[in-house]
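2024-03-11 09:14:02 INFO worker-7 job=invfold-0412 stage=load source=structure_tokens
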């Protein structure tokens, strides 16, 4: 006592003195908290393993004795008989608790200073003491190492297992475990595949402890009874809690070692007794599977049907080809392998002087050969059926396309023939041609069906067709040709109607004006745009300024909606009547030709005529060549042909 006081005096007074009542009480309170949590988790592992819900509070959940009886039945592997499963009165709770305590005592466990009332009233200190006694009895008491048992035996086991790890020095069940390395060492010693001890950061106390907890729970089935803070964030880890947790490692690894020893013995015996039969069983299994697979394939082929499309037939063909390149080759290999395996089985039996192996009915190599030959016949029939279907589909596609193409051409030919046969007064001809034009859209639409049929033939690789000489491109070209012919015929008749009504123009003039209009109507729309009209007028020797041409063109658009043949002819009539006479045209050409009786291409270009007008005049006017081979165009003769003879 004197030494104690002397030490206290040397430390100094105050609440923070290591042995001050406050510090001691704080340590004890923390130990109780850790123990309550740890012991509760330990008990929950027993309850949950047997289908009971876990406890959340020792004081509350043990107070009625129900959970305590359940735990004793689990630990004792026996029934405690009838008890109050839903006690409401204190006396019922006391009966339950007393039954559990009597069972504990009957198992040779000595309980000190604890009675039913202590558990009912929630005396945590005594409850923790009772649970610790149970842990010692059911978890730690059976630990033995070199003659030492319980705590000493567990400590010695830990020391022996962690001895090779220089950073680990297990001297107790408190501070020796505060950096997590001892736990990691125990895991690595028994299961080096679970943890790489050399790569651990030895200074990371929290990380190492957390890693050991996680691996032990996930891979070893050791429940995490402690928190990282219980070891790393206290100067005095609770000894009982640490022992309870570490005991889980002992039981897990001891069970593993015992299991490995037993397994090795059984393995040797099993290898000795089963070495002969393993190959035989494998042979039967593989032959049975091979026969089943071949039978299923034949049934599958027999059940398949075609839907009549080339895509479906090709799918059947692709599937069949895939079978030949993969499944069948695998079966060929397997057939050879099972034959080899059968020979190995017989050789092994002879080696051990055992009776020759006779496969069960239906599993002999002869049965395999018979099934294989049946498969080959079914395979040949399947191939014939697919090829026949593809040939028939291609033939159907040829006929389908030919029927559509020939019918289209026939309808188009009828319209073309009717177009050529149009006759009668111009108005009646126009009516007949326009009726033909109304039939063209429906005919054009039907070409889509022909094109679709041709696409089907192309997809089916049908290149030749003896049922028709037409292709979609042929028919499309002929359709466009007939459409253009109808449009030209309408324009021609329309122009003829206009020409017929032009009584103030000579036939030669009408012919000349019509040919000029057709020449400059480049898109064959039976209309002229402004540049085309300008060139056409210039080719006739009629030239206006840009401003005048704009006015004329705008007026024609306003009057006619476009420069049609009728508008062009009426314009020329107006011009001939009001502005131009044959004498005036001759005078204009003489001016361009510099009074020569002929005009050259250079003269026309110097006069700034449009290129299209020059080209037209070169083709229209009579031409001869001079001594040097240069073309000379006789405008006088041309004008005589265009206009009736008049005085020059």
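2024-03-11 09:14:09 INFO worker-7 stage=emit residues=648
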């Amino acid at each position: 006592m004197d030494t104690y006081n002397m030490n206290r005096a040397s430390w100094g007074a105050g609440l923070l003195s290591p042995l001050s009542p406050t510090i001691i009480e704080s340590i004890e309170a923390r130990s109780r908290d850790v123990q309550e949590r740890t012991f509760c988790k330990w008990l929950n592992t027993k309850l949950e393993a047997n289908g009971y819900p876990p406890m959340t509070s020792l004081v509350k959940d043990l107070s009625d004795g129900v959970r305590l009886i359940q735990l004793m039945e689990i630990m004792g592997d026996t029934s405690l008989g009838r008890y109050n499963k839903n006690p409401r009165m204190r006396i019922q709770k006391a009966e339950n608790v007393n039954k559990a305590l009597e069972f504990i005592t009957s198992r040779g466990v000595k309980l000190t200073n604890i009675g039913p009332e202590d558990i009912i009233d929630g005396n945590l200190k005594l409850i923790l003491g009772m649970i610790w006694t149970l842990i010692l009895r059911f978890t730690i008491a059976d630990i033995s190492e070199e003659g030492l048992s319980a705590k000493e035996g567990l400590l010695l086991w830990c020391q022996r297992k962690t001895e090779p790890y220089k950073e680990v020095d297990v001297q107790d069940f408190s501070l020796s475990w505060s950096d997590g390395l001892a736990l990691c060492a125990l895991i690595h010693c028994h299961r080096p595949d679970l943890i790489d001890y050399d790569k651990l950061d030895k200074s990371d106390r929290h990380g190492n402890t957390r890693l050991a907890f996680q691996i032990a729970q996930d891979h070893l089935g050791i429940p995490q009874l402690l928190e990282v803070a219980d070891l790393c964030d206290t100067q005095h880890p609770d000894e009982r809690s640490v022992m309870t947790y570490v005991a889980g490692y002992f039981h897990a690894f001891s069970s593993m070692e015992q299991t490995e020893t037993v397994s090795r013995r059984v393995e040797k015996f099993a290898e000795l007794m089963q070495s002969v039969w393993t190959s035989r069983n494998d042979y039967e299994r593989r032959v049975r599977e091979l026969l089943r697979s071949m039978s299923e394939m034949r049934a599958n082929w027999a059940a398949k049907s075609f839907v009549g499309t080339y895509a479906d037939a090709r799918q059947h063909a692709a599937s069949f080809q895939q079978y030949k390149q993969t499944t069948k080759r695998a079966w060929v290999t397997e057939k050879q392998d099972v034959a080899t395996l059968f020979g190995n089985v017989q050789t092994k039996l002879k080696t051990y002087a055992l009776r020759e192996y006779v496969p069960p009915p239906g599993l002999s190599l002869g049965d395999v050969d018979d099934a294989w030959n049946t498969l080959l016949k079914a395979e040949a029939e399947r191939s014939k059926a697919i090829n026949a279907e593809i040939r028939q589909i291609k033939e159907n596609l040829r006929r389908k396309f030919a029927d559509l193409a020939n019918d289209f051409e026939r309808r188009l030919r009828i319209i073309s023939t009717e177009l050529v046969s149009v006759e009668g007064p111009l108005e009646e001809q126009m009516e007949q041609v326009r009726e033909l034009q109304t039939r063209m859209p429906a005919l054009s639409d039907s070409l889509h069906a022909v094109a679709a049929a041709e696409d089907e033939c192309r997809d089916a690789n049908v290149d030749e067709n003896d049922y028709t000489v037409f292709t979609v491109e042929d028919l499309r070209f002929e359709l466009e040709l007939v459409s253009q012919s109808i449009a030209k015929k309408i324009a021609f008749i329309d122009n003829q109607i206009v020409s017929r009504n032009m009584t103030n123009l000579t036939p030669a003039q009408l012919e000349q004006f019509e040919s000029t209009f057709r020449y400059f109507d480049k898109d064959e729309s039976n209309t002229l745009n402004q540049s085309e009209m300008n060139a056409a007028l210039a080719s006739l020797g009629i030239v206006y300024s840009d401003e005048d041409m704009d006015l004329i063109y705008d007026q024609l658009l306003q009057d006619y909606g476009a420069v049609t043949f009728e508008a062009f002819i009426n314009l020329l009539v107006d011009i001939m009547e009001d502005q131009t006479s044959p004498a005036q045209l001759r005078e204009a050409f003489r001016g361009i030709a510099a009074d020569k009786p002929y005009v050259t291409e250079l003269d026309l270009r110097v006069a700034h005529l449009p290129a299209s007008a020059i080209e037209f005049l070169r083709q229209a006017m009579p031409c001869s060549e001079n001594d040097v081979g240069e073309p000379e165009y006789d405008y006088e003769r041309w004008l005589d042909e265009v206009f009736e003879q008049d005085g020059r």
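2024-03-11 09:14:09 INFO worker-7 stage=report msg="The two ends are 162 Å apart (CA to CA)."
2024-03-11 09:14:10 INFO worker-7 job finished
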